[in-house]
């Protein structure tokens, strides 16, 4: 795993976003120039503004609009951001995942007081979207 990916997963890149695009969703060899080939697709970490634009270009929907709709359903997304558990089907796999890190914020309370938090939002191949969040382990 690249240093950039490791830093993102450790919440050391709060101004960046991570995007996973499955091969089954988007087949563009040029994506590897911007990210890293992982099982089933390409995972990239880019600055927030570029990442939101890339997400919209790849999926046809705004990143924050997608995140808001996916928040309605919680399920598990793997911390490597390439897989998850769709709440609506047994054999679905994420077509894409959008994620960002939020720094520890004791004033907000809850899990945000426990440490840095990763927010992840996935779209399954069955069409369902869902979200997950977790405290980054130090």
Note down, in words, how this protein is organized:
It is a single chain. The protein is an alpha+beta fold and 138 residues long. It is built from 4 helices and 6 strands, in the order αβββααβαββ. It has helices at residues 3-9, 48-59, 63-70, 111-114; strands spanning 16-22, 36-38, 41-47, 94-102, 117-124, 129-135. The longest helix has 12 residues, at 48-59.
| Elements, N to C (H/E) | HEEEHHEHEE
Mean pLDDT: 91
Structural class: alpha+beta
Q: Span from first to last CA?
A: 18 Å
Helix content: 10-25%
Radius of gyration: 14 Å
Number of domains: 1
DSSP strand (E) fraction? 25-35%
Total count of helical runs of at least 4 residues: 4
Q: Can you count the beta strands?
A: 6
What is the makeup of the main sheet? Answer: 6 strands, antiparallel
